[in-house]
Queue: 2 jobs
Job 1
Amino acid sequence: DTAVSQTPKYLVTQMGNDKSIKCEQNLGHDTMYWYKQDSKKFLKIMFSYNNKELIINETVPNRFSPKSPDKAHLNLHINSLELGDSAVYFCASSHPPEADTQYFGPGTRLTVL
Amino acid sequence: GNSVTQMEGPVTLSEEAFLTINCTYTATGYPSLFWYVQYPGEGLQLLLKATKADDKGSNKGFEATYRKETTSFHLEKGSVQVSDSAVYFCALRVGGGADGLTFGKGTHLIIQP
């Protein structure tokens, strides 16, 4: 029973393409997140989203957009992919009162050629 | 802004050695502090956390104490095992709502038999 799942696990694509990464959580959490981990393992928050607010890290290009069809899903859409977008992307979720504890998915390794 | 500084790695130790991984932070407000661990090829797992000053988080033999006076949250283990080899991330979170985690750059720990 995977708590936070992501698909695909690996994604290889060409520059300029548009792609999506899906995230689903079965924990009943109301807040979901996307993080980017670069080649040096540095993790950075991209988006936080619950049914009340979307918080966007100001450094994230507007080619990236989160889409939430329902409370259990937060998908990441990326337009016009660039070489620098190559990274591992992690989805996470949390829920009050333990909102401090975030549960991470296994990650999606995106390679842009 | 918020930031987390960890000691640079990799850190290489022999099995049964004592481990310390230093972590200091700067934060606007009163953060909760975390250690996450990432095993090779996997996502992040919460190792331990502390939500207020002088709290001690502990799990699997690892400990860290929230020191407000020194703005630190150093990770320690008395006797490491080969299976502890992983990347360890110190992180903080300030505020409520949908705020994400701010991570340090990670410390790669290698335990040799």
Note: DSSP finds no helices and eleven strands in chain A.
Job 2
Amino acid sequence: DGGITQSPKYLFRKEGQNVTLSCEQNLNHDAMYWYRQDPGQGLRLIYYSQIVNDFQKGDIAEGYSVSREKKESFPLTVTSAQKNPTAFYLCASSIGTGPLYEQYFGPGTRLTVT
Amino acid sequence: DQQVKQNSPSLSVQEGRISILNCDYTNSMFDYFLWYKKYPAEGPTFLISISSIKDKNEDGRFTVFLNKSAKHLSLHIVPSQPGDSAVYFCAASGRAGGTSYGKLTFGQGTILTVHP
């Protein structure tokens, strides 16, 4: 079954710790994305990658880092520099970049930092 | 700066009636618009889209209308079904800010509840 998996579903961390969120896709998509959703707000783009070994900052990249060593994997690290890390994080992928390519989303990871 | 706005946080509709979800945008560089649907504990799924060269796009029970002069789009669901109960996000893309990437800018979402 093709799709996007994000693990874990819920993640709890202490303030000051870095944490890495996993995103894997078996759709053979070139492009992958990380979004953040906060209550009452839409999805905001953190980072995106158009191809392996390449990625660009989105609107709210500060305090986050990513890597794209494999086509199917795009992990997101929430660093201690991120001031408000508690949020719902969504990973997505698409065949290519651009609005005409439908983005497929994973189920999300809810991160709580205390 | 919220470039895409969904001013109604929630909407409640009776089964069989029409649901109308609204979305406004401020950036005139947006030229492609999408609607996504999201169930609890799941990621959003693509529903329907429209290019700025059109003013209407229909797919089964779902129709999206675009009014470029008013910078407004709406999603009509007819007839509404209980299974349509979800959060609906509108999103916009285009050469905003000079990028050709086509980044999606999302609205805040509207919670639709369809009562049996």
Note: The interface with chain B takes residues 4, 9, 35, 40-45, 48, 56, 58, 90-92, 97-100, 102-108 of chain A (CB under 8 Å).
